[in-house]
Amino acid sequence: xxxxxxxxxxxxxxxxxxxxxxxxxxxxxxxxxxxxxxxxxxxxxxxxxxxxxxxxxxxxxxxxxxxxxxxxxxxxxxxxxxxxxxxxxxxxxxxxxxxxxxxxxxxxxxxxxxxxxxxxxxxxxxxxxxxxxxxxxxxxxxxxxxxxxxxxxxxxxxxxxxxxxxxxxxxxxxxxxxxxxxxxxxxxxxxxxxxxxxxxxxxxxxxxxxxxxxxxxxxxxxxxxxxxxxxxxxxxxxxxxxxxxxxxxxxxxxxxxxxxxxxxxxxxxxxxxxxxxxxxxxxxxxxxxxxxxxxxxxxxxxxxxxxxxxxxxxxxxxxxxxxxxxxxxxxxxxxxxxxxxxxxxxxxxxxxxxxxxxxxxxxxxxxxxxxxxxxxxxxxxxxxxxxxx
Length: 389
Fold this sequence. Notes:
66% strand; mainly beta; lipopolysaccharide transport protein A fold; 29 strands; rod-shaped; 5% helix; 1 helix; 29-stranded mixed beta sheet
């Protein structure tokens, strides 16, 4: 026999009491031969049985491991056991799941099944699981609890909520020891106050670290009230919820609605609350209304103030009038279209007449070829080259 069963009756009727005592004595006799195995305790206010089935009403079921540590304890309106007593069908389930002697999940559901002598519990219909340690709540229509693996598998209309994040998915796995939720399939996650929305196919939520990790193609949208302000697509992302910061990698495409700006690079750090974008890798900025492109080896874009700052090998191109500007560093007002450049400045205008300007600094606007190049720190003339047709 795989388990020790103890039955404690709440009735005062002599016959039921005598039956309970006899059952306890018989099962205790068996337990002496297998006291190292897991045990399950049953408390009930009602019992009926025939030759093959045992049915308990208003019962409390408890499962312990071989060391006597409690694994779970649940209350049910009814429990119907199979003839071999290894499986039980449950109705109106409510109880606690334990780990190292502490409650790690509070669960409830309309129905449930105990299998493999309590080694697995299946819950279905209106399932709610709450982790009291971090206030995370999981809801679905079906879950499977595996005590030995500390794993709760969540299926069918999965919804997870927390003060920092709400998420939905096709399926999820919650590791209670690590307090980590893994979601798969048509995921939609929304941060607090619905400021940020994320869509992808695979997501890992490390709740104690306040971190969300996406390792597949994902789309993120920032809202102000109900209006979209920014949209980002990338292959990988790490969301730091406590810092309101996202580290985005691989094929990053970022679009701001106002100011009208697109950012393309291989890695950025996005402070989505304050709309600050940082990149230490080659980055391309495109003002897509007036078709101005600025590239550099690294950049910082302050979208809240419509300003961009680029460093290292900067190149600015105006497609409208076929002009180019090169410099070491550049500051760009994306709305006013004004630029300030310094360090080895070269300005090329390819319209008639064609000419080059070289110097140490430049100010003006690329969109209308209004650029002034100077040598501010030295009294030297700006070199101008004109190329006649």
